Amino acid sequence: DTEVTQTPKHLVMGMTNKKSLKCEQHMGHRAMYWYKQKAKKPPELMFVYSYEKLSINESVPSRFSPECPNSSLLNLHLHALQPEDSALYLCASSQQTGLYQPQHFGDGTRLSIL
Amino acid sequence: QQQVKQSPQSLIVQKGGISIINCAYENTAFDYFPWYQQFPGKGPALLIAIRPDVSEKKEGRFTISFNKSAKQFSLHIMDSQPGDSATYFCAASWGGAQKLVFGQGTRLTINP
């Protein structure tokens, strides 16, 4: 079992829906990440939060809106998604954004856009 | 320059054999090289990581070899087992950066 918990595990939504993905960690990590992974491809970084502040946005479309309410919780709000946004969305955390801090991944939310 | 090139794309090894996956990079600023293992339906799990001040790191059956002058690093899995069948990703980052640059992945199959 991973120490980064993501919910839901699966999500099917229409292009006009609004939904949210949730990620929790209780390891005391202060950096949290969202990645997108398409089938048979490596994870692609979307956002990084450091001490609850957004530090990196990899030019992600505004239909994806991240939120970090506290140091243990990370949300990704979804609105008006496109079929090409169907993918596995992974959350990760690391102890801090310093040198050589390994990132620990959750098992992801598999998102399907109809 | 930000790329990490990983080979082979897929690999089939007999049980008990040695699995070898290679990665190469151009950016000499990279200073942290982790390997991740991913099973179907799961997130990537950190397997082993190395920094460029050492040439080799071993953890159980898994060994990273690092060649700084050639800008290459590789993962060796000794006595490969069917349970090692998974996709393996090498990655690199630099200077405490929060970005991991991933290789394209290798799908490893261990035949019993």
What would you say this structure looks like, in words?
The complex is a heterodimer of chains A (114) and B (112). Chain A is an all-beta fold. Helix content of chain A is 0%, strand content 56%. In chain A, strands 2, 4, 5, 6, 9, 10 and 11 form a 7-stranded mixed beta sheet that branches. Chain A has a 4-stranded antiparallel beta sheet with strand order 1-3-8-7, with no helix packed on it. Chain A is globular and about 40 Å long. With 112 residues, chain B is an all-beta fold. Helices cover 0% and strands 57% of the residues of chain B. In chain B, strand 9 and strand 10 (101-102) form a beta hairpin. The N and C termini of chain B lie far apart (39 Å). The interface between A and B is medium-sized, with 28 and 23 residues.
Salient structural properties:
heterodimer, A: mainly beta, seven-stranded mixed β-sheet, four-stranded antiparallel β-sheet, globular, B: 112 residues, mainly beta, six-stranded mixed β-sheet, five-stranded antiparallel β-sheet
Q: Uncertain runs of chain A with pLDDT below 50, 5 residues or more?
A: none
- SS elements, strand count of chain B: 11
What can be said about the biggest beta sheet of chain B? 6 strands, mixed
Into which percentage range does the β-strand content of chain B fall?
over 45%
Average pLDDT level of chain A? 93
Radius of gyration of chain A: 13 Å
A few lines on this structure:
Chain A is an all-beta fold.
